């Protein structure tokens, strides 16, 4: 069984009486495995379920005297921790998948020296994934700058990272966008007609 979470020095924990502490310990022992099983049933690995449950229990301990329905709260809190962990892992995986198959040593060196940055997928994850899947169709120079562009970098930043003039970077971005637009148009032309439209509709590059 995991250790009962205790507040660290400096935590803004509300005062917990001996009676309240005993109540929390009883709750912890009763619900830890239940919450972990709940998360596993939601698709979590055992490790992820344990981590999310411990984080939620620590949060609950800090708020124990304020939360009136701890049973409902702990399940929601643990699931929230789990879902945020899944999102972090997904963004990190997408970042790893963005690394292109480089055709020359110079491009390879430039890519490996780039600082990591997570993608903001909120409201546009499908579009982002579509672009990622098509990056491999671009020439290496265009692929490199476009990967950084969709990650939120501007031309001057990209130029500094890869050691190219900013105008060259802008040109490669323009060419890459033109190529991706052609691919999008081809996808739309090849997609079967659906009531409500294709998933590719509405994408811009």
Summary keywords:
205 residues; Arc Repressor Mutant, subunit A; mainly alpha; 2 domains
What does the model show?
This protein has 2 domains: 18-91; 101-190, Winged helix-like DNA-binding domain superfamily/Winged helix DNA-binding domain (Arc Repressor Mutant, subunit A). 64% of the residues lie in helices and 0% in strands. Helix 1 runs antiparallel to helix 2 and helix 1 (18-41) crosses helix 3 (70-97). With 205 residues, it is an all-alpha fold. The relative contact order is 0.08. It has 8 helices and no strands. Residues 7-13, 100-124 and 194-198 have low confidence and may be disordered. It is elongated.
How is this fold's topology laid out?
Elements: H1 18-41, H2 46-62, H3 70-97, H4 105-112, H5 125-135, H6 140-150, H7 155-162, H8 166-190
Helix pairs in contact: 1-2, 1-3, 2-3, 6-8, 7-8
Largest sheet: none
Head-to-tail CA distance between termini: 51 Å
CATH architecture of the largest domain: Orthogonal Bundle
Cα-atom Rg, whole angstroms?
24 Å
The gist of it:
The chain has 205 residues and is mostly helical.
């Amino acid at each position: 069984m995991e250790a009962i979470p205790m507040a660290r020095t400096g935590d803004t924990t509300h005062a917990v009486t001996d009676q309240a502490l005993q109540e929390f310990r009883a709750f912890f022992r009763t619900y830890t495995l239940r919450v972990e099983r709940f998360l596993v049933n939601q698709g979590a690995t055992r490790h992820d379920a344990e981590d999310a449950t411990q984080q939620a229990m620590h949060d609950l301990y800090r708020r124990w005297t304020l939360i009136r329905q701890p049973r409902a709260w702990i399940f929601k809190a643990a699931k929230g921790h789990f879902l945020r962990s899944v999102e972090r892992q997904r963004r990190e995986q997408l970042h790893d998948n963005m690394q292109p198959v480089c055709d020359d040593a110079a491009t390879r060196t430039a890519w490996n020296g780039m600082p990591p940055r997570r993608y903001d997928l909120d409201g546009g994850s499908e579009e982002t994934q579509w672009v990622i899947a098509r990056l491999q169709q671009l020439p290496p120079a265009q692929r490199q700058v476009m990967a950084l562009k969709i990650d939120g970098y501007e031309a001057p930043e990209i130029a500094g990272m890869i050691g190219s003039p900013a105008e060259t970077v802008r040109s490669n971005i323009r060419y890459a966008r033109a190529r991706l637009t052609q691919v999008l148009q081809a996808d739309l032309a090849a997609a079967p007609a659906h009531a409500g439209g294709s998933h590719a509709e509405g994408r811009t590059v």
